[in-house]
Hints:
With 215 residues, this protein is an alpha+beta fold. The protein has one domain (5-10, 33-199): 2-Layer Sandwich (Peptide Methionine Sulfoxide Reductase, Chain A), CATH 3.30.1060. The protein is built from seven helices and eight strands; from the N terminus they run αβαβαβαβββαββαα. The strands form two sheets. A six-stranded mixed β-sheet has the order 7-6-1-3-2-8, covered by helices on one side. The chain has a two-stranded antiparallel ribbon with strand order 4-5. The longest helix is centred in the last third of the chain and has 17 residues, at 136-152.
Amino acid sequence: MKKSILYTLCMFFLAGCTANGQSDFAKLPQVKLGEQVADFAGGCFWASSEAMSELRGVDKVIAGYAGGRTANPTYEEVCSDKTGHAETVQIYYDPKVISYAKLVEAFFYAHNPTELNYQGPDQGISYRSIAFYRTPQEKEILLNIIKEINASKHYNASIVTQVMPFTVFYPAEQYHQNYYKLHPDDSYINAVSKPKVEKMRKMEKSQLKPQYQNM
């Protein structure tokens, strides 16, 4: 669970959403012809969803849960750290426009991959950093980029991101989808999520969709 005053404020809002019957789980879209899918966990999925959706070639990003044991977990169950899941984003992208390697780079710059089992004020294994791979080639790309970023000394510490084979992804409740854009005045978004998105924009400017390149 986000252990911060900002998170407490957010939860009052989310409780209102649930009361209004908006807590249904999101639906996974069909993979379009020629599309590929990638999954990453990098702290709160509100920021990750926005950051990855701003990249050229990315069609959709779904917030959800992966890397755990429990089937169809709820947000509250994941936040308890008892299911083993991490907040994860599933990305539907066109590999002719953006490569898996560029997605991986953006992922590593959209959060701090040197923080073990937390991201900023968000504490617990549900906020751990994980890069999921579907093929041996994707695993090799992940390991090579981790080596490159570590060697570049971009971060003051070594990357602790888990590199795991993809198994299953469960979409999160509907109120988590596109949360960043829907709640631009939210205090948590502005204090925690926005700096992550802005960092990714700075590091991956050439990969951004045109509308985000001058933000």
